[in-house]
Amino acid sequence: MSGCPFSKPAFPMPRQCPFVPPAEYRDYQQQPGPVKVRMWDGKDAWLFTRYDDVRAVLGDNRFSGDPHVSGFPSLSPARNAVLDLEPAFIRMDPPQHGHFRRMLTKEFMIKRVSEMRPRIESIFSRLVDELLEKGPPANLVDDLFLPLTSEVIAGLLDVPARDHGFFQEQSRLKVLLDVDPSIPKAASDRILSYLDRLITERAQDAEKRTDLLSRLIVEQVRPGHLTHRELVIMAELLLMAGHETTANQMALGVFSFLTNPDQLQLLRDTPSLLRNAVEEMLRFHTIVHYNAFRVATEDVEVAGQMIRKGDGVIALISGANHDATAFEQPERFDITRKADHHVAFSYGIHQCLGQPLARVELQVVFASLFERMPGLRFAVPLEAIEGKGDHFVQGLEALPVTW
Ligand code: HEM
Q1: Which domains does the chain have, with CATH numbers?
Q2: What Gene3D superfamilies does the record point to (predicted)?
Q3: What is the best residue among 352, 357, 362 to mutate for testing ligand 1's pocket, by most ligand atoms within 8 Å of CB?
Q4: Most exposed of 72, 335, 338, 348 (fewest Cβ within 10 Å)?
């Protein structure tokens, strides 16, 4: 166990290597139960990093995901500012959570999302054509992955192409952790005002349109199941959750292949490993690395530890996905492993709604990226590639490449 045995470790712990979870998680996994950690505001929380424990917490609705319940742990002042905003269903407990989530489940079912695959392939192919035409170098985050994931989610909601840069920028600001709290709050206000206007306009001819927002207006808002404001907040969640995460995962996936050429060769030789490879990159990077914060709404025993009502809990999926009892040699990026049981999309009622879409997007990219750009390599020394240290979602600041 690292650190002084009498003081509580401070959370979050810095990463020793930007692309690997902090070594402390491994230490904590050697002993049963959680570890008490100290947050920036001087309050304590229970930190769970073991695979089975993380699933036990996330699968138990006696732990609330509502940041307004007393005792909910605080990650940083900037994060508080985001959590203080009007909540989307990602921050709600049952039964409200299910009421809103059910309105969207059929949209993101595997079958429905599979029908989107040809469109995603054609957007990706066009963007790669444009990049090849322009020639190297390129920053794959800004020049390929954000445009791709933005166009996919914006297409679903029918958000005009000219506004993609605007919502990408607001999403980037909203997940910053170590900034003045007014920054993420203002970003959220801007995107909510924008969506408020868009949805007001859309309501005028919603019945003639087929996009998701129009259908929600007709099927949910008009009959009174959803208010205009609730739809605005739901749309923000979809827009934000739907592009930044997946683009970050794509960048880190490329990073992993370029730094593990044997794995890239394996994928080239055995294309049937594609699905495995995508699950492995999701596991390995677990980009929503500070998920999930919870608070006990009653006394609950987990892994032999009594968690008292009002205690803050952090059930770290990034810890769980690097627990050696669930994934042999977790620090290895190994596309032949069976990683399907990872919890990169979380677990329990808040498990990612968009995961079928994220998977299809990732599969489309990694099915052909290295064939279309056979000489793809970093355009700068490896040390110059920076991880997004102080973001709620892990990623790369930029991915400068040439080919
Ligand atoms: C690689 C890409 C993605 C990753 C790793 C990811 C990860 C996650 C995680 C960990 C959660 C749980 C959050 C929590 O408990 O606070 C979540 C929730 C959610 N994600 Fe994703 N996500 C990805 C892509 C997407 C996409 C493409 C969408 C599409 C709109 C999406 C929509 C959502 C929504 C709506 C929720 C809230 C679910 C609920 O609370 O019931 N995500 N995601």
Answers
A1: 23-402 (1.10.630.10)
A2: Cytochrome P450
A3: 352
A4: 338
